[in-house]
């Protein structure tokens, strides 16, 4: 595995430890460990964070996600491995990750048919959180 350009986890230890604590809370939250790992993996795929892709692929496996779901995640629209609720969440994750002009109602409202407000709020934080971690890792590990 590549080493970071700077030992950022040591140089910014207090902040980094808070990020790790937040990750633990989210990983054990409403989404469940398996689906959290899949959301993090999909966001990392979009952002091209190779370090994060490897990490979250392993986390998804450890959480019991089926290989078929992991293997077809980038093509989830063409896969029958994901429920309509999961598809709505993945669409939302992609929309937030590619965010330019906000999240349209056509992406947000389907979430309401499948999830509680608390779940949607945690999903939103989970997606935003992973986008932030991807950017930290991409900056520190380079290309």
From TrEMBL:
Q: Name one GO molecular function term.
A: peroxiredoxin activity
Upper classification of the organism? Bacteria, Pseudomonadati, Pseudomonadota, Betaproteobacteria, Neisseriales
What is the protein's given name? Alkyl hydroperoxide reductase AhpD
Q: Which domain of life is it from?
A: Bacteria
Residue ranges of domain Carboxymuconolactone decarboxylase-like in the record: 22-94
Gene3D superfamilies in the record, alphabetically?
Answer: AhpD-like
The record, for InterPro entries, names: AhpD-like (IPR029032), AhpD_core (IPR004675), CMD-like (IPR003779)
Q: Which organism is it from?
A: Paludibacterium paludis
């Amino acid at each position: 595995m590549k080493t970071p350009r700077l030992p950022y986890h040591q140089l910014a230890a207090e902040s980094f430890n808070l990020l790790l604590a937040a990750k633990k809370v989210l990983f054990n939250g409403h989404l469940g460990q398996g689906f959290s790992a899949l959301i993090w993996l999909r966001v990392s795929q979009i952002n091209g964070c190779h370090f994060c892709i490897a990490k979250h692929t392993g986390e998804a496996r450890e959480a019991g996600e089926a290989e078929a779901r992991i293997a077809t995640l980038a093509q989830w629209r063409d896969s029958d491995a994901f429920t309509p609720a999961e598809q709505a969440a993945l669409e939302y994750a992609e929309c937030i990750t590619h965010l330019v002009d906000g999240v349209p109602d056509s992406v947000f409202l389907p979430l309401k048919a499948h999830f509680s407000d608390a779940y949607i709020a945690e999903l939103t934080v989970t997606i935003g959180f992973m986008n932030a971690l991807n950017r930290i890792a991409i900056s520190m590990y380079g290309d």
